[in-house]
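Tokens in:
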């Protein structure tokens, strides 16, 4: 009986160890989520970014991801840098996702915060923003190690495509990997056939577990001979973004969701290109930001999408001007007393 009992005990021990290893491997591998589950989990951490010059006559729109609960947002540099000056737009507005997106811009874009650029790299097309007035923890987009992703893996994107809806979900797969994109050393990207359009710029490319493995950056739409190109889009790998963030003093603990601060973020005015990055090459692919097509004092065209960037910039510029005027008047009255 003693031998039989010992044999049973050994069998039970090995069985328990096998079940533990099976459970552990399943947890370690992560659960594959449906697109709906990914959207519900990560969309609250995705924002709309709008930059514009004083007066609202020049601007740009795109997408960003909250990577730290105190209001740090990762996006593309070309979304927040004025093309003519090469400097950040004078005004930046960031819109947080509402509980329910209705297609009515007045309610969908009611949660607005001002922001400032704290660091950027034009060669890598990355920018780090800080939201003003954050009083409670914000939802964060989880960051993963892009090295885990392979060609053929399913991915999704969340953003605000022109002519489409706000906080739009699109799906696809990784089509290819490209190193030193457009001749920029260290700028490694995924090519994907996930539906991306202008307005998706700076938004997250998410893997099957709902973690960010890329920053949506550029699209190829027309060949040199004018032939239309479809389903070719590019996302900067999260490993490149993570390394750049660490150089700015923001450490990202891959796969854990919450970036860990490791020091002070370098001011944008003093931000040089990373040492390993060559000067920016001329892009042949259009970026994904939306540019206004009319001046604010012109009559707006019939609205053909749930939001109109031209009108948004005009309205925000007017609101900012009215606020500045009111503050100046109040300061004048206080001096008179």
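Residues out:
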């Amino acid at each position: 009986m003693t031998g039989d009992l010992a044999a049973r005990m050994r069998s039970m021990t090995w069985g328990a160890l096998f079940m533990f290893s099976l459970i552990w491997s399943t947890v370690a591998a992560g659960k594959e989520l449906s697109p709906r589950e990914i959207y519900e989990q990560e969309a609250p951490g995705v924002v709309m970014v709008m930059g514009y010059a004083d007066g609202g006559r020049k601007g740009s729109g795109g997408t960003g991801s909250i990577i730290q609960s105190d209001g740090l947002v990762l996006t593309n540099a070309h979304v927040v840098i004025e093309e003519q000056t090469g400097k950040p737009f004078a005004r930046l507005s960031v819109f947080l996702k509402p509980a329910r997106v209705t297609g009515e811009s007045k309610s969908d874009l009611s949660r607005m915060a001002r922001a400032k650029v704290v660091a950027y790299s034009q060669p890598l097309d990355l920018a780090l923003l800080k939201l003003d007035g954050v009083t409670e923890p914000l939802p964060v987009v989880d960051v993963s190690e892009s090295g885990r992703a392979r060609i053929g893996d399913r991915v999704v994107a969340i953003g605000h495509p022109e002519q489409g809806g706000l906080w739009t979900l699109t799906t696809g797969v990784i089509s290819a990997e490209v190193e030193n994109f457009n001749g920029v050393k260290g700028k490694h990207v995924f090519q994907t056939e996930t539906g991306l359009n202008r307005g998706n710029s700076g938004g997250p490319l998410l893997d099957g577990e709902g973690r960010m493995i890329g920053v949506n950056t550029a699209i190829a739409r027309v060949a040199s001979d004018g032939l239309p190109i479809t389903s070719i889009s590019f996302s900067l790998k999260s490993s490149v973004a993570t390394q750049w963030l660490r150089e700015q003093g923001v450490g990202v603990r891959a796969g854990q969701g919450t970036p860990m601060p490791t020091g002070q973020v370098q001011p944008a005015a003093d931000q040089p290109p990373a040492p390993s990055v060559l000067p920016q090459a001329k892009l042949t692919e259009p970026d994904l930001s939306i540019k206004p097509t009319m001046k604010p004092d012109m009559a707006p065209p019939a609205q053909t999408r749930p939001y109109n960037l031209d009108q948004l910039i005009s309205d925000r510029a007017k609101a900012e001007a009215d606020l500045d005027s009111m503050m100046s008047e109040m300061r004048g009255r206080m001096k008179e007393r």
